Amino acid sequence: MTKLRFCAVFVLIIAFCAFGQLALAQNHHYQIKVIPRANSNHAAGPSGITAGLYGLTAAFTATPVPYGFNSDGSDLWPCPGGGLTDCPTIGDPTITFPAGGWALGNPSYQWSLSGCDGTTNGNVPCGQTETFYEDQSGDSTDDLTYLIEVTQGSKVIADSGIVDFGTNPYGGLSPAADVIIYGDQNFGTLGQTGKNNGNCEANYNYPGEGAPPTGLFVVAANKTCSDPVAGAATLTATTSVSHPVWTNKKGVYTVKYTVKYSVKQSWTINLQ
Question: Would the pLDDT of 45 be above 80?
Answer without folding.
Answer: no
